Every structure is written in structure tokens, then in C-alpha cells.
Amino acid sequence: MTMPTTAPHALADVTASDSTLRRFLHGLPGVDAVGLEARAASLGTRSIKTTAKAYAIDLAISMVDLTTLEGADTPGKVRALGAKAVHPDPTDRTTPATAAVCVYPDMVATAKEAVAGSSVKVASVATAFPAGRAALPVKLADVRDAVAAGADEIDMVIDRGAFLAGNYRKVYDEIVAVKEASGAARLKVIFETGELSTYDNIRRASWLGMLAGADFIKTSTGKVAVNATPANTLLMLEAVRDFRAQTGVQVGVKPAGGIRTSKDAIKFLVLVNETAGTDWLDNHWFRFGASSLLNDLLMQRQKLATGRYSGPDYVTVD
User: Fold this and answer.
1) Which residue of 98, 131, 218, 239 pairs with 206 in a disulfide if CB–CB is 3.0 to 4.6 A?
2) From CA 241, how far away is CA 290, in angstroms rounded?
3) Omega before 130 cis (within 30°)?
4) Candidate list 65, 254, 264, 296, residue with the active-site label
5) pTM above 0.90, yes or no
6) pLDDT in tens, 215-268
């Protein structure tokens, strides 16, 4: 599937000016909030058992962006996180590796060294994460530093203030500039859905990010009260499905923040399967932004294998 770089030709005229972009975004169908939440809740009741559950747990492990984004992060903590990403369960080498480790730009080189020789990618938050309150040259320098240190993926935050003020062109131009600065690294565009207030805004942000060249659209930073929910993730999955139908370009989705249990993760995988389809059931197109989720997935995996839960020392405390 062709990766997006700029606005796809099929919708190129939409981004020709501020007025055409605004007209397109405000012309998107309004979101039926009640219907959206009811469908998300309904899909969340699906029961996954035995071999299907085992498959779903391994798939979810392979989709985790194992994350540490704290001011107290140390090189030792990042090295330990990288080792865990490569071998989540050292006692069972059949356990899949996670998709990536996600760290601040100054920890990219350490993370890169820790996962060297494995399939695990290094993702870096950038663009003055998590608030995004910085001038564009500062944001781009942040991105270039991360890429120069070896980041395979960049997770950027949009300027929510500009978006909420209706300055869509500014947000679009920033995403385009960050995409260019990212070079070969894949770009995940974070909306901070908890700050966008309405489902209509989340739908508009999804399309804006994809038009600007996002490789992934991501719900949240994990740093605010409301992060990924089944409803806002369902809405974004509908957006990537419809975007591919119109342009032929596939874009990934990453819910982040608040997904802590295997049960939660499996509910999100059902959303993916039933909304976007099986093409997205792969860590190239769907990720979980998480820190504590992996431990519960490992505990549930062990339970399926042995019929009992392991003790509290079975998994590491991240």
C-alpha cells in the first residue's frame, strides 16, 4: 500500500486554500453521538474464547508501543524497557515482541541500542510533546534531533489551540512540515481527543491529519484526563476506512492512554475487525500506546497456557 506523503491526488484540491479546507472539513457528515457510543458499547460485548483469545492476546502484544514518557526516565530504565520489548516474557521465547518502544527524543539513541537486531521499532514523541506549545522551528528541531538519533517513528502533537480556533490551515501546514522533517520515519499525528470536545471535531481532525500525510492517527498523549475510548477510536477507524475508499491510501490508528487490561485490548481489536477490517489487524496499521497493558497481556497469556495465574513477580514493574 502506498504510504502518504502529501495530500492524495483524489483530494488534492481540498487543501488548495484555507477556505477549501474549511469547506471540506465542515462538510463532513455530523457524528451521531448516541449511535456511535451505542455501537462501540455493543461491539465491546463480543465474547472471545479459547484459541481466538490466545491469538488476540499475542496480536495485542505485537501491537504495543511500550512507552515511558516521564521526567524521571533514565538510560537504565529505557534499556530495561527495550529488553522487555524484545523479549516480553524471558521465560517463554514464543511470546511475540512488541511493535515499538516510545521515548522522549533524548532517549532515542539509548532505546535504539537496546533493541538493536530485533524487529522492535523506536518511536519518539516530538513537537514539544505533550502540549505542543512551541514555535514551528523548535518543533521541527525536536523532530530532526529524534530522527538523527535513529527514531523509526515520530509521534507529533497537533496545535489544539489553532484547531479549536478554526485555524485548520496552520495545523495542516505544521503536519506537512513535520512529515517532511521526519524523512523516512513514519509519522503518527496525535489529536488529544480529550481536548477536542466533540466527536465532530475528532472526525475533522482525523481527516485533516490524513490529508496532511499522517501515516497514523493517534487519539491521545496519555497526559490528560480523557484518553482513548472505544467511541473515539471507532470514529477514527471509520475515518481511515473511508479515507482509503476515497484515495487508495491506508492510514494506521493508535489509541493511547487508559487501555490497561487484556479485556480492554481485545475490545479494541474487535472494533478494528468490525469497522476497518482485517487489513488493519497488523502492527503496521494498528498500535496500542501503553505502559501497563503489556503486563496484563502477559499474565493472561500465562493463564491460558497453564490454567493458573502466576504470582506478582512474574512480570516486571515498569
Assistant:
1) 239
2) 24
3) yes
4) 254
5) yes
6) 999 999 988 888 899 999 999 999 999 999 999 999 999 999 989 999 999 999
